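step: validate -> pass
step: tokenize input -> pass
step: predict -> running
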Amino acid sequence: MANERVSRFLGGSPLRVLVQLLLLSLVVGVVMAALGLEPFDLVNWIVRAAERIVDMGFGAVEQVGRYLLLGAVVVIPIWLILRLVNAGKS
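step: predict -> pass
step: emit ->
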């Protein structure tokens, strides 16, 4: 019963999946070596990409904040004046 669950989870027998993963790792390693890529280069690229995404995200938040403040400088005084004028009519 437990072996069936493990096999179903892995997509085959554990030994077969291990052999497939080892062969695939070997092929990918050969291709990466042929391209002159090192594992740490790939990890550093992923980290730098994540940092750029975060920086863009915070940059976007900063830009939205600027737009919000710029609009508020116009909208809030107009809203306040309209509220005061309408309060005088009541």
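step: describe -> The chain has a mean pLDDT of 85.
step: cleanup -> pass
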